[in-house]
Amino acid sequence: MKNQKICVIGCGNLGRSIVKGLLNKNTFDSNHVTATRRNVDLIADLATEGALVTSDNCEAVRNSNIILVAVKPYNVGKIIHEIKGEIRKGQHVLVSLATGLTTEEISEMLDHKIPVFRAMPNIAANISESATCICSRDASPQETKNIKAVFDCVGESLIINEELMEAATILGACGIAFVFRFIRAMIQGGIQIGFDANTAKQIVSQTVKGAAEMLQINDDHPESEIDKVTTPKGCTIVGLNEMEHQGFSSALIKGIVTSFQKIER
């Protein structure tokens, strides 16, 4: 990937997270990473870390092989209309991070038939811990491998069928907010039973991190790990049962489904 050049068009929160992740991983030479935003002052820190920073999207495309479009869905058509004159078949691959726009719709906006990808990372990309789902259209196995390698720089990525991309958006991109809300509630509970906020945050953050890593390393079902902690008549099972009585799992599932229904409209 050292010979590849990449631009990220529209470096808001998600775009800048990806650029930071790419720079931290050193898979790309820093001068092969271009970040764009209308107000470049807002991404000046990326320049100090080695990225090329510009407000000129066409210039960014001319200097890149891989184009990441990280703007809101309603701005994708405008951006593609702006840059498509610079896109060359056989030279460029386009990756959209926009929710709800299919690869077919994006391909129809282009003058040339080039490989088009959709990717849905989350904001943990800036610490190289994103969960990213990817699908493609008119892409070769090697091109797919290259794009997966891009997002492996910012966490873990997997290739899925396009019909699951909206569900992936909810579970991965929205899901990180759901996890933060759970962590916040755990911290508030910790404060109520006696900890100061910083200590509670430290305990809860490490507990959540440890739980996630156990699932990944042990490749086990969460309920199996729960069984190891719930002793008869113990405080863990009492707490779990009370949470379920209050609708904990049901509320979480309903939240996920409601978010999915919103994105499907």
TrEMBL record:
It is found in: Cytoplasm. It catalyses: L-proline + NADP(+) = (S)-1-pyrroline-5-carboxylate + NADPH + 2 H(+); L-proline + NAD(+) = (S)-1-pyrroline-5-carboxylate + NADH + 2 H(+). Pathway: Amino-acid biosynthesis; L-proline biosynthesis; L-proline from L-glutamate 5-semialdehyde: step 1/1. GO terms for molecular function: pyrroline-5-carboxylate reductase activity. GO terms for cellular component: cytoplasm. NADPH binds at residue 57. Its EC number is 1.5.1.2. One of its GO terms (biological process) is L-proline biosynthetic process. NADP(+) binds at residues 9-14, 70-73. Belongs to the pyrroline-5-carboxylate reductase family. Catalyzes the reduction of 1-pyrroline-5-carboxylate (PCA) to L-proline. This is Pyrroline-5-carboxylate reductase. It comes from Labilibaculum filiforme.
